[in-house]
Structure formats: C-alpha cells, structure tokens
C-alpha cells in the first residue's frame, strides 16, 4: 500500500514537467513550421503579406517604416521566437553555456536551412544577410530568455537548499 502511495506522489510531481517538455517541443515545432510556411511563399505572395504588415505600421502612425524594414523585422522576430522557444526546450536537459550554445546553434542552423530552402521557391533566393538577421534574433532571444531561465533555476535551487 505504501509503495503505491510513493509511486503516485512521484508520478504527480513529474507530470507537470513532462507536460512542459511536450508543450515546449510543440511550440518549437510550430514555429519551425511557421518559418517554413512563410519561406515557401512565392515572392509575389510574400510581398503582399509584407505590404499588409506595412499598412498596419502606417495606420499606427509609423509613416517612415519601409517594406525592407518590415521584411527584416519579420526575420528577426520569427527567429527570435524560435530562439526563445528552443532555449526553453533545451533548458530541461541542459544548463549554463551548453544550453546557450545549443539553442543558438540550433536557431542559426534553422536560419541557414530556411534560406537554402528558398532556392527552390519561385522568385525567392537565399541571402546571407537574412541568415545574419535571423541568427541575431536567435542570439538576442537566447540571451534574454536564457538569463531569465538561469535566474529562476538558481533561485529555485537556493530555495530548495
């Protein structure tokens, strides 16, 4: 009877972490699929989508925003989200510099693969500048989210000690 009680207590404590691991993996996967979807759009559709976002900026009073800025901001933001989600996902197995490096390298590899993929999309092509912008978004997100996770983990360890 007592062994069953202990097993159920251990299982109940582990379950929320398992759900977070699954959720983080699904989030990373969803963001990768979103990046693949956007880079699969022919140039004409991609320009229309960017134009819609540009119109929103202009409606909000940002008259000096250009199409070029919107497109590069989209790269930075999407890969920043991928970096944030991946550092969170990697934080379950890794910590410290290994977690930071793995997340950054993962996001940068995805950025390079995303640009390579564009070689096969009508009117699109790979740009080294876009990989640099994407990896910059990953880096900023990995540093910010990674530091937050590290601080939370350290506070939790101090509390449990």
In short:
This protein is mainly alpha-helical and 161 residues long. The chain has helices spanning 2-40, 43-59, 67-90, 96-117, 128-160.
Could you please describe the fold and organization of this structure?
With 161 residues, this protein is mostly helical. The chain has one domain (2-160). Helix content is 84%, strand content 0%. It has helices at 2-40, 43-59, 67-90, 96-117, 128-160. Helix 1 (2-40) packs parallel to helix 4 (96-117), helix 3 (67-90) runs parallel beside helix 5 (128-160) and helix 4 (96-117) packs antiparallel against helix 5 (128-160). The longest helix is centred in the first third of the chain and has 39 residues, at 2-40. The two termini are 30 Å apart.
Task: Name some characteristics of this structure.
mainly alpha; about 160 residues; elongated; 5 helices
Average pLDDT rating: 90
Range of strand content: under 5%
Oligomer: single chain
Shape: elongated
Helix fraction bin: over 70%
Radius of gyration over C-alpha positions, nearest whole angstrom: 20 Å
Major sheet: none
Q: Order of helices and strands, N to C?
A: HHHHH
Distance between the termini: 30 Å
How do the helices and strands line up, and which of them pair or pack?
Elements: H1 2-40, H2 43-59, H3 67-90, H4 96-117, H5 128-160
Helix pairs in contact: 1-3, 1-4, 3-4, 3-5, 4-5
């Amino acid at each position: 009877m007592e062994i069953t009680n202990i097993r159920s207590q251990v299982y109940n404590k582990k379950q929320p972490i398992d759900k977070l691991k699954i959720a983080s993996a699904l989030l990373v996967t969803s963001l990768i699929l979103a990046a693949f979807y956007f880079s699969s759009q022919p140039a004409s559709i991609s320009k229309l989508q960017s134009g819609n976002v540009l119109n929103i900026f202009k409606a909000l009073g940002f008259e000096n925003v250009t199409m070029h800025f919107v497109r590069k901001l989209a790269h930075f933001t999407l890969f920043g989200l991928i970096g944030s989600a991946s550092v969170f996902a990697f934080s379950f197995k890794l910590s410290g510099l290994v977690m930071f490096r793995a997340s950054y390298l993962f996001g940068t590899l995805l950025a390079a693969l995303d640009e390579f993929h564009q070689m096969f999309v009508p009117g699109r092509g790979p740009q080294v500048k876009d990989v640099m912008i994407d990896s910059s978004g990953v880096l900023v997100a990995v540093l910010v989210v990674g530091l937050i996770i590290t601080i939370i983990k350290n506070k939790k360890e101090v509390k449990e000690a």
